[in-house]
Amino acid sequence: MTPDNEDSFKKPLAIAYFNVDYTLNPKGTNYWRNRVLKVAKDVKDKLNFAIASKSEFPRELESFGDREKNEDVLVTVKNYAGSKFVMPDKFSVDNFKQFVADYLDGKIEPYIKSEDVPADNDGPVKVLVGKNFDEIVNDPEKDVLIEFYAPWCGHCKSLEPKYNELGEKFKDVKSIVIAKMDATANDSPPQYEVSGFPTLYWAPKNGKDKPEKYQGGREVSDFVDFIKRKASDPVELPEDGKKSQKDDEAL
C-alpha cells in the first residue's frame, strides 16, 4: 500500500508498517510479508490486509510514539467509520493473531490522539481535545461551533481575539457552545474534514453525524448572524434587548 493507492483498499483493513523495499532488501521485505500472510489467510473473509513502508506514512505512525523507532513492524486496523485500532504489543505472529482476534471480537477501543483534558474548561470558548470531543460536541442539548486551528497558523492567530469575543457573547446562552481544537495535536471524527487552518464546523443538536462546514465571513457579526440563523432554538443575546429598548425609545 502507498499513499497513492491507500483509498482503494477495502475496510476493515489491517496494515503492517515496516521497511518495505523490494529493490534493496527483497529478502527482508518478504520475511515480514510472509508473517503477515500467516495470520491473514485464516481471517481473509472477515478482514483485509496490506503492507506499507514506514517511510511513506510518517503521520500514521505518530500514534506509536517512540515505538516507531524501536520496533521493526507496527500494526493498525482501520474500520469503515475511519476509526483506527493500534496493536499494543511488539510484533510476532502470535501477538498479531491475538490482536486480530480481539479486534474482530470487539475487545479493542479505537485509538484517539489527544492532549490531556483541560483541568479548567469553564471559559467562554471551550477547549476540545480528542478525549473530550464526544462529550462536548455530541451533547444532544447543544448546538456547537468548532474552530479547528494550528498553533503556528497566522490566520488562526488573527481570528483568536474575534473568536474569544464571540464566546463572550454566547457564554450565557445555554443551548450554544463556542469551541476550539488544536487539530495538530488531537484526532477528531472523520466527518470533520480539516484540510487547512482555520476550519470551522457547525454541529447542531439534531445533526451531529453531518456537521456543516462554515463558509461565511470571519468578523464577529458574521458568526453571530450565522448562529442566530442556524440555531436549533431561538437565540437572544443581552445586546438584542438593549437594541429593542433603544428602538422603542426612538419611537
From TrEMBL:
<dbReference type="GO" id="GO:0006457">
    <property type="term" value="P:protein folding"/>
</dbReference>
<dbReference type="Pfam" id="PF00085">
    <property type="entry name" value="Thioredoxin"/>
</dbReference>
<comment type="similarity">
    <text>Belongs to the protein disulfide isomerase family.</text>
</comment>
<dbReference type="InterPro" id="IPR005788">
    <property type="entry name" value="PDI_thioredoxin-like_dom"/>
</dbReference>
<keyword id="KW-0413">Isomerase</keyword>
<dbReference type="GO" id="GO:0003756">
    <property type="term" value="F:protein disulfide isomerase activity"/>
</dbReference>
<dbReference type="InterPro" id="IPR017937">
    <property type="entry name" value="Thioredoxin_CS"/>
</dbReference>
<keyword id="KW-0256">Endoplasmic reticulum</keyword>
<keyword id="KW-1015">Disulfide bond</keyword>
<dbReference type="InterPro" id="IPR036249">
    <property type="entry name" value="Thioredoxin-like_sf"/>
</dbReference>
<dbReference type="Pfam" id="PF13848">
    <property type="entry name" value="Thioredoxin_6"/>
</dbReference>
<keyword id="KW-0677">Repeat</keyword>
<protein>
    <recommendedName>
        <fullName>protein disulfide-isomerase</fullName>
        <ecNumber>5.3.4.1</ecNumber>
    </recommendedName>
</protein>
<dbReference type="GO" id="GO:0005788">
    <property type="term" value="C:endoplasmic reticulum lumen"/>
</dbReference>
<dbReference type="InterPro" id="IPR013766">
    <property type="entry name" value="Thioredoxin_domain"/>
</dbReference>
<keyword id="KW-0732">Signal</keyword>
<dbReference type="GO" id="GO:0034976">
    <property type="term" value="P:response to endoplasmic reticulum stress"/>
</dbReference>
<keyword id="KW-0676">Redox-active center</keyword>
<feature type="domain" description="Thioredoxin">
    <location>
        <begin position="103"/>
        <end position="232"/>
    </location>
</feature>
